[in-house]
Amino acid sequence: MSSRIASSLGELMQHGGAEESVLGVARRGVVTVTSGTSSGTGWVALGNGVIVTSWRTVGFQAEVTLSTEEGRRAAGRVVAVDAERDLAFVLPLEAIGVVPLPLRADPLPRLGEAVTTLIAAPGDTLVTAMAVVCAEGRGGELAALDPDLGVRAGRGGSPVIDAAGRVIGVITTARRSGRDPLDRSRCVLPVGLLSRDLRALDVPAEGLGERTLIHRCPGCTEAFSADNDRCESCGILLPHAYESESPGAERVVRDALAALGIVANKARVGPRAWRIQHRALGGDATPSEVTVRLDSAGLQVILRVPLVRLPSANHEPFYRLLLTANDQTSGVCRLSLAGDVVVLSFSEPVSAFASEHDVAAVFHDLVRLADQYRKVLAELFGAEPLRDGSW
């Protein structure tokens, strides 16, 4: 039955008679929201231009870039966020010719209702995903779709549209009540649960852009910043724009960075990656960038430091030296190439990383060894030294 319903909705949205199709109208209200290296879907909800997107798209950034399917671009400012519900609201700072989408706050998404989701992809046309509501969102609960959009929905924020072209909800990774706190499968937050947020933002745009952006703890609603891993008031772990994929391994990394006096949330650059600047005791006065990464299975902790760029000549003796160093002088560390950059790596099982080592000593030794290799490779081969993420 689900396939027949979806097929009927698809025909209606694609053809729609003599007038422009319902889907064609809806597409004009959807944008791509880009924040740093992250991007997601947004859609215009209010006449003043306010765009609804996901908090995991914008993270802790206040300034974003908006792009339409037709190629228009504009700057945007994040004016409100709700990290626990995975919501963010963006005000365009210039006109981009995008119209607000009609909203359907009532009735809520209904069991068996066929819907369409529009998903923005940077530099590409909007992706259309059709599904059926398989769990209703009643009593403040989130709804669910079949099939689950999963990774197709990216970082969320996509509008869920009914057969009449009205938005009935937004794709979110907020936790469904009664589920494990780490269960962040993508669900539908009904538009009716956004009413209070939208009313507060339905004001002239001139004053809206001057509001102070505040992140609030989901446990006690006290304000927090990216500089904290835990709420200073209630002590719970604070959300991060990157979803937790391996909570146990992530805890090991967080504790390791804390031993160095580093806040993991502030250093996080990806779902399984953190980047810090570290200076070896007694080593070069200039710090080196260390990337801390978990493997895809969450079983290994990998530390990497950039050393030099591949020299323009004398490649054979250069490679021979790298191989010799791996056999004789690098110990538990390894030299390897990442593109045209030589990196020094240290890998350890998560289970042993925190229990068998002085974490600070591991970082100090890695960076000190990196300083030594960097100097040798630059002096012998004229290789360009590297210390940060410019590579």
TrEMBL record:
Tell me the Gene Ontology biological-process terms attached to this UniProt entry. Answer: proteolysis
Signal peptide positions (record): none
Q: Recall the GO molecular function terms of this protein's record.
A: peptidase activity
Per its UniProt record, what InterPro entries does this chain match?
Answer: Peptidase_S1_PA
Q: Does the keyword Nucleotidyltransferase belong to this entry? A: no
Q: Pfam families recorded for this chain?
A: Trypsin_2 (PF13365)
Q: Which UniProt keywords apply?
A: Hydrolase, Protease
Name of the protein: Serine protease
